[in-house]
Amino acid sequence: MSTPDDAERLSPLAQRWPRACKFLLSGCAATVAELATFPLDLTKTRLQIQGEAALARLGDGATESAPYRGMVRTALGIVQEEGFLKLWQGVTPAIYRHIVYSGGRMVTYEHLREVVFGKSEDKHYPLWKSVIGGMMAGVVGQFLANPTDLVKVQMQMEGKRKLEGKPLRFRGVHHAFAKILAEGGIRGLWAGWVPNIQRAALVNMGDLTTYDTVKHYLVLNTPLEDNIVTHGLSR
User: Mind listing the pLDDT tens digit for each residue in 24-58?
Assistant: First the structure.
């Protein structure tokens, strides 16, 4: 005869540790998305850095042409001059950031929805609860991810220093963490956290609220079930 402990051991991991599984799945999804879109982020940053460097050299009346023009030519220039894999230079801190941020916000939102606020008897989740839950989830996720976000920005700024002929400050991600911690202490890792969480609260208010509201509407008012198709349409 099976005991409750045996039944628990045989149950799927998602049922035994739902929050941990949600964090891992969110982190994996965020990693794939970041790897796919990082070249766009890198070329955008390069274009911004080139403009700032040109202004620093020549002032507001700068007319000197930049090495690259436009997103496509910037990306092609990086591939030709530095190599294809350089399109993913600096992706490590970005992945760290998205694992913590995406996992943290999704786990927080589900906990607020299922435990703190709760659904109504007809399984409906009111809009006002989605709004508050989305904002709180964004705040928690961004606060947890602020150290990795700070390192990501600092590593991206190394490209500007290189264009200006200045020595690089960091040898890598872990060296950046160690140097920021040594110079500013624990509080230094959360520099700029207030505007960051304000932005994250607004972004997630729109993102998670829209997603959850549309998903529940489709499940309750259409023949669609709670599956990958419904989740995709909700986005």
Answer: 988 899 999 999 999 998 888 878 777 665 556 65
133 burial level (CB within 10 Å; 0-12, 13-18, 19+):
buried
Residues 208, 104: Cα–Cα separation, whole Å: 13
As a whole number of angstroms, the distance between CA 74 and CA 68 comes to 5
Q: Distance from CA of residue 215 to its chain's centroid?
A: 22
0.85 exceeded by pTM = no
- Running DSSP on this structure, what letter comes out for residue 87? G
**Helix, strand, coil distribution of the chain in percent, nearest 5:** 80, 0, 20
Q: 95 CB contacts (<8 Å, ≥6 apart)?
A: 30, 31, 34, 35
Continuous H helices in 164-223 = 173-188, 193-221
**Can you tell me the distance from the alpha carbon of 23 to that of 145, in angstroms, rounded to the nearest whole number?**
13
Kindly list the domain boundaries of the chain, sorted by start residue: 15-86, 90-191, 192-234
Distances (CA, A) of 164 to 41, 50, 56, 151, 160: 21, 10, 9, 20, 6
